[in-house]
Design a protein that fits this description.
This protein is mostly helical. The protein is 82% helix and 0% strand. It contains 9 helices and no strands. The protein has helices at residues 2-18, 23-31, 35-41, 47-56, 59-62, 66-94, 98-126, 130-152, 161-184. α6 runs antiparallel to α9. The longest helix has 29 residues, at 66-94. It starts with a helix and ends with a helix.
Length: 186
Amino acid sequence: MASMAQTFFFLFILFFSFLPLNSFSLQNRASHPSSLIQSTCNATTYYDFCVTSLASDPAGPAASSVRSLSVVAITIAASNATTTSLIASILANKTTDPSLHALLNTCAVKYAEAKEALRSALRALGEESYDYAFIDVSAAAEYPSVCRVLFRQVPRLTYPPELARREEGLGKLCRITLDIVSLLNN
């Protein structure tokens, strides 16, 4: 019975992890993003991804400054890291393979560390320490890559596609966040 509850919980988390980037929830907001979102995202590496991400969060269209958009971007990235850590933990608990269990637990820890680095970036933004915010977001972008590298070292194990997809998403979120934080130093 516990296994069924865990499966339901996993599916519940998985479903809701897609909502922020789900096209039907973004149609109205992303089709008419604010001029601040458009101009800010114009200075990022992934314009479309930036607009979609920032417009998907209710705080994005309400933002009144580049600084407040950077907070939104960090918050979205932290949410991704938190959910991915949880997914990795659930996957670890579902496997009977000790090697896979250990790798997935390591992944969960790395995503949790990414979340903590992003929280630190939020604190740095609050103190207007933009260089430190930049460093913290950069660190958050690197933590998940450890997970992928560890899976490459054990060829018989496959890097879970959901983790690969979420790692890419977090990488893009961190990249646009870095681009936005860079605007604050100008």
